[in-house]
Amino acid sequence: xxxxxxxxxxxxxxxxxxxxxxxxxxxxxxxxxxxxxxxxxxxxxxxxxxxxxxxxxxxxxxxxxxxxxxxxxxxxxxxxxxxxxxxxxxxxxxxxxxxxxxxxxxxxxxxxxxxxxxxxxxxxxxxxxxxxxxxxxxxxxxxxxxxxxxxxxxxxxxxxxxxxxxxxxxxxxxxxxxxxxxxxxxxxxxxxxxxxxxxxxxxxxxxxxxxxxxxxxxxxxxxxxxxx
Amino acid sequence: xxxxxxxxxxxxxxxxxxxxxxxxxxxxxxxxxxxxxxxxxxxxxxxxxxxxxxxxxxxxxxxxxxxxxxxxxxxxxxxxxxxxxxxxxxxxxxxxxxxxxxxxxxxxxxxxxxxxxxxxxxxxx
Lengths: 228, 125
Hints:
Chain A is α/β, with parallel strands linked by helices. Chain A has helices at 20-28, 45-51, 65-78, 98-106, 128-145, 161-165, 176-187, 202-207, 211-227, and strands at residues 7-13, 34-39, 55-59, 83-86, 112-116, 123-124, 157-160, 191-195, 198-199. Classes of the chains: A alpha/beta, B mainly alpha.
């Protein structure tokens, strides 16, 4: 299937030189417009992404995944993107999930599609600790945002231009995921969850969030809520 | 009057004078320096009339003047910390916005402009 016109795949990246080239090449076979935001990587992430054919934006200093995501979204919108897909650069996501993800938006049934690894049997090799952490995150999201989602921390998402243009992430680091859901709720635009597969590899698990990091995310998010 | 009292009166008096001078030089400075002038003058008064703190403390239900000063110092510390944190968050936000604009203006490679509907996907070329 060839890509719908003006679809941008936005990938924040930090020190992913090992895998990002392969991820981009696989993506570009179907989706030619890939926007990578190199978030101040210390390795050759940017060069690898460039060589693989992506458009590369570089944060000169590391600002965090949330900041990189917002930068990529802002750029894609300015360049005329009509549909945006956010995609992790560590190889956890599968390109094969994109058609089902964007289908509700293309059909006009929703403005936002959120990937969920818990809809059906889609969490491949997920460690128990990670499952527990995500369960806690789900509960936290229900309490703070009121949204009943099955997967609150999945980087595979799709946005219509209208929805993406209303995003304005203020939290630069990992707490942006909770803030993003708050903004989706406040947009009052229709959203859906779509089953996707997350591939857990030793590499991707090593890059993921730790339990200790989860506490920092909680502090960042609560501080943000209080200060609003 | 003890040496400590005299030193305290001089230090707080000078600090109050400096704060007041800034306000006199620039009226708009009262927002920043006005509270400080009040704090230094209150501190100077506490050095001049040490028994006064006990009276104020009793009036608000706190036993000793020293305890009152301690509580006020703690509150002031929390307030100062909150202000610094807010300022740091604003600075971090401005830094992110600056880094973002630099990144966007220096975008390189790939399809820097969106692909035309007529362009085939790379797999079809």
